[in-house]
Write a structure and sequence with these properties.
single chain, alpha+beta, Alpha-D-Glucose-1,6-Bisphosphate, Chain A, domain 4, 8 strands, globular
């Protein structure tokens, strides 16, 4: 079974990333929704985050700064628009609340082969908006982020 994959269709402004975790859905859900976990793994390899505020509810948001390996800082703002506990949540993923280029992103959780499959599907306003993030290798960096979550789960002994 393939551990992770990226789908970038030619005909729609979407990027879909999938990763299968060797962990139960309840644990993976917690790791993806609680800031005390997110601060340890969110972001590509070599990146860190500074948590500013979080309110995981419909209408709430998560505000943080992503820090690149060279020290570059990127403000991030996730506005939660839908939450179906243990199954999915949706947010607008931008740099600020009124970011016109922010894609809508749904993160879905499903039982798979004794573990949990997570799919992150980002939908952009148009193909040009998607291309701008692909120019920064968002597909590869997104897969790195998903892999860091698995390393965090294993390293922290959360499965015990």
């Amino acid at each position: 079974m393939q551990k992770q994959s990226a789908l970038v269709p030619d005909n729609e402004p979407v990027i879909a990333l999938t990763h299968v975790y060797d962990a139960p859905r309840a644990l993976v859900w917690e790791v993806f929704t609680k800031p005390e976990h997110l601060v340890h793994w969110w972001g590509p390899a070599g990146f860190a985050i500074e948590h500013e505020e979080s309110d995981f509810r419909v209408g709430g948001h998560w505000k943080f700064v992503m820090i690149g390996p060279d020290g570059t800082r990127w403000q991030n703002y996730h506005q939660y628009t839908d939450i179906d506990p243990m199954d999915s949540f949706t947010h607008r993923h931008g740099s600020r609340p009124d970011d016109p280029d922010a894609p809508d992103e749904i993160i879905c959780f499903a039982d798979r082969d004794g573990g949990t499959e997570v799919t992150m599907r980002m939908t952009f306003s148009d193909m040009a908006a998607r291309q701008r993030v692909l120019d920064f290798h968002a597909d590869t960096l997104g897969l790195q982020t998903l892999a860091k979550a698995e390393a965090y789960i294993k390293h922290k002994g959360l499965l015990e």
